Amino acid sequence: MSELHSMKILYGLLSDPLIAALAAGNETEFLRRCYRCGAEERVAAYLFDAVRCDDNAFSRTCAAGKTPSALVRKAFSEDVDCIADALTRLPEGCRAGKTPALFAGNGKTCAARLKRYYAEHGCGIYLAHTAFRYAQGGLQPILTPSAVTLSDLKGYTEEKTAVRDNFENFVRGLPYSDMLLYGDRGTGKSSTVHAMVNLFAERKLRLVEIDKENILSLPALRAALAPLPMKFVVFIDDFSLREDDDRVSTLKAALQGSMEGHAGNVMIVATSNRRHIVEESFETRRNSVHAGDSEEELLSLSDRFGITVLFASTGKKEYLAIVNALADDLGIRTDKETLGMLAERWALERGGRSPRRARQFADYVYACEQKGAPVTF
């Protein structure tokens, strides 16, 4: 299979141990790799999925909505034909299996089809993962991202509508704003962000989490994401800073306050329990010569977010409405009156009413009913 070594665009695939063994004609190693990943009966699916997710000159140009040069298109088509040919000469004990529909036909046909695919869905690692964590100067895929959807989140209709509208503007290339979602714990701020990313994932939207300890790296992160042909939500969860924290100025600069301007493919979204993010102290204010100026400096940080959305704590009526909606989704059989009394006791014993408490309660009741056990706590 030495012809695989002649690939011009898809040469990066040779870093895959299974494909490298195939290219080297090492049948023993190739079979070992196939058995290890369960690909011995579906080699075509394995190879072509590697092609689909490869980050190369063809896929990245198409994902950016541009047309690759004739030379790049020709080289890519020939590489695909080379892989298809290799599938006809697999070692004994392996089967090509069914070719994915995306790769039906010859290389030229596949290239035309993939051009549209990449333009719509993105390319490279961003096809395999929807969420990442920024750490040690790079992006690390989150292998088990939250699968929450908007239908899973009950209540807060106006708040979710405001967030969704801004996300819609962002993915459509319309004017958008960085966002601050603030309010009490357990009100669904983070879950709302995750649900929005899941909603728009098919439109090349990806999540990048950055810890507040790494905020000083925010300019570098934005610079790294700016040239990529995707949309990124840079997410800072449960965010707060002290008044004397030097990260305050870094975040302010990132929120449309620097010469770099507003990167069209990066939106910053933060959640916080505080409207003004910064933890204020009476001692600092008392010792400040210009207390009014100091206060304005602190408030200006949250003002840099173009949109702020309050997720207020729920009252009894809203809390029970969420419990009942969750119970309907789960098919809980306990009557509504009993369920309401139990839900109230659950909240009072665990620190108050919130959507998180409602979800925990509903899941507990559902588990009890599935086991045939009484609901006791």
Summary keywords:
single chain, 7-stranded mixed sheet, 3 domains, alpha/beta, Rossmann fold, 16 helices, 377 residues, globular, 11% strand, two-stranded parallel ribbon
Can you walk through the features of this model?
- With 377 residues, the protein is of the alpha/beta class.
- It folds into three domains: 2-127, no CATH class; 131-311, Rossmann fold (3-Layer(aba) Sandwich); 316-371.
- It has helices spanning 17-24, 27-37, 43-52, 57-63, 70-86, 107-121, 125-128, 157-171, 189-200, 218-225, 247-254, 282-287, 291-303, 316-330, 336-349, 355-371, and strands spanning 131-135, 138-141, 179-183, 205-209, 231-236, 241-242, 266-272, 278-279, 307-311.
- A seven-stranded mixed β-sheet has the order 2-1-4-5-7-3-9.
- Strand 1 (131-135) and strand 2 form a beta hairpin.
- Helix 5 (70-86) packs across helix 6 (107-121) and helix 8 packs parallel to helix 9 (189-200).
- Residues 257-261 and 288-295 have low confidence and may be disordered.
